[in-house]
Amino acid sequence: MTRFDADTSADRRKLFADAVTAHRERGSAFLTVEVEPPREEIRFDESSDEDDPDEPADGEAHTEDGESPEGEAPPPWVQFAEKTFNLDCTDGELARLHDLLEEYPEFRIDEQETPEEAEGTNVRISARSDANRLAGFLDRAFAEVYDQPDDYRAWVVQV
Length: 159
Description:
Elements: E1 5-6, H1 9-26, E2 31-35, E3 77-81, E4 84-89, H2 91-101, E5 107-113, E6 121-127, H3 131-145, E7 154-158
Helix pairs in contact: 1-3, 2-3
């Protein structure tokens, strides 16, 4: 693979299909796709030439538990290993996932786990299909299940 991010549906689907193909050819343990968090407008105090040392640097805007300072959850991610998707969902996201899976009859939920200390459910979906069909599912999952905008940027962070 030569590129690892995309921000249009067509480009994301091509990226995801390439990632699935690379994962299969390499025999890697899994591949991981993450959504880039939306960028907030950064405003600097024009009276100061230095950054505030108490403010987190870029990439450090999360607390130790992985949540943003405002209590927002980290951006969504999906892993794929061999023929299984692995993702975490809130109750609302899980309901939307079930709706999406109605359009993918060859995919099925194999396992759902809701640990007591977690605020969501980990879902494992068996998905035996070609790279393009898997890519389409990934793109739709981010858009429909995780309610991402049309121009969301996805990154293949591990292949």
